Amino acid sequence: MNGDLVVQRPEGLYCPPGDFYIDPWRPVGRAVITHAHADHARVGHGHYLAATPSEGVLRARLGRELNLMTLPYGERITHHGVTVSLHPAGHVLGSAQVRLECGGQVWVASGDYKVAPDPTCAAFEPVRCEVFITESTFGLPIYRWLPDEELFADMNAWWAANAAAGRASVLACYSFGKAQRILAGVDPAIGPIVVHGAVEPLNRAYREAGVALPPTALVTDIPDKASLRRALVLCPPSATASTWLRRFGDSSVAFASGWMQLRGARRRGGYDRGFVLSDHADWPGLHRAIAATGASRVIVTHGSVPVMVRHLTEQGLRAEAFATEYGDDRIEADLEPPAA
C-alpha cells in the first residue's frame, strides 16, 4: 500500500485497506456505488453498497435480485478498518459521495454531483476531507446554469405556446434524473404529460421513494388522441429519430442538457429548442463544492480534466487526475448531445 486510500486499478477506483472498489467498470467482489447511472453502476459485481434512497432505481436498472446492501445517509460502517459513510451528492435520486476514514486520513469520492437545488433528490452536502475526488463534466468557465425559476418559466412558455397552436411539445432528456427533475419543475396545468416507456419505470421508483411528481401516462394509455396535441412528451434522445415520434403528429422537438450552453449544439442535433439543464455542477458550482471540503489535494476523474487540474494547481492545491471510464455511455451520462 502506498498510503493512499484510493488508487487506480484496471477494474476501477480501489480502496486498498478496505479491499473494495468505488463505481468499478469491471466485475469485482465488492463495489460501493455512488449512483445508478450506467457508467457508475454496472452489472456483475458480487456485492453492492449504496445509499438507501437509491435502492429502487438500482434494482429497476440492474435487477431485482441484486446483492445490495443500503446505508442511510450519514450512517457509518467499518470494513477492514476503513470507516465508510455516504453523503448526499445532489446529482440524482440516491446519489452519494463516499467518505473513507482510515489511519488518520479522510478521503471523499464524489461520483457525480450538483450543487443547485433539486426537489427530486437530497441536496449536496459538503464533507470535510484532506483529499477530494471530483468530476469535471462541465469544468469550463463557459458553463454557468440559470436559476431553475427562469429555466422552467421558459420551458413552460414553450410548452404553452405549442399547446395553443395544437402542436405536441417533445422534450428529449435522459430517462433517469433529468426527466424527473423536469416533471417536478413544469406546470402540469398546461396539458397532459406523456412519457416514453423508458422513463415510466424510473418515475415509479421516484414515487415509491416519496418524490412528488405530476401524473404521467404512456401514449398507449391516452384514450383521447386529440389531447396529444397539447401534451408535453418526455423521451430519451434516441426516440426523437424513431417511428415512435410519429404518434404525436405535428410537434416541436427540444433537448434538455447542459450541452445546450454551447453555440451550435442545438443546430447540430436538429432540435427546434435547447434548454440548458444539467444534473452536474457548473463551473462555479464545482469550485464552491471543492472549496467547501477544505481539501488540500484534489483528484479529477472525468470531464474537462486538464483545465480543472491546471486551474486548481494555480489556486495552490495539489491537483492530479485519475484515468476512469466514467462517461463512456455518452448520452446516458449527459456528456454530449446526440449526433445529428
Automatic annotation (TrEMBL):
Keyword annotations: Exonuclease, Hydrolase, Ligase, Nuclease
Entry keyword Ligase: yes
GO molecular function: exonuclease activity; ligase activity; RNA endonuclease activity
TM segment ranges: none
Residue stretches in coiled coil: none
E.C. number(s) listed in UniProt: 3.1.-.-
PANTHER family from the UniProt entry: BLL1145 PROTEIN, CLEAVAGE AND POLYADENYLATION SPECIFICITY FACTOR FAMILY MEMBER
Name of this protein: Ligase-associated DNA damage response exonuclease
Lineage: Bacteria, Pseudomonadati, Pseudomonadota, Betaproteobacteria, Burkholderiales
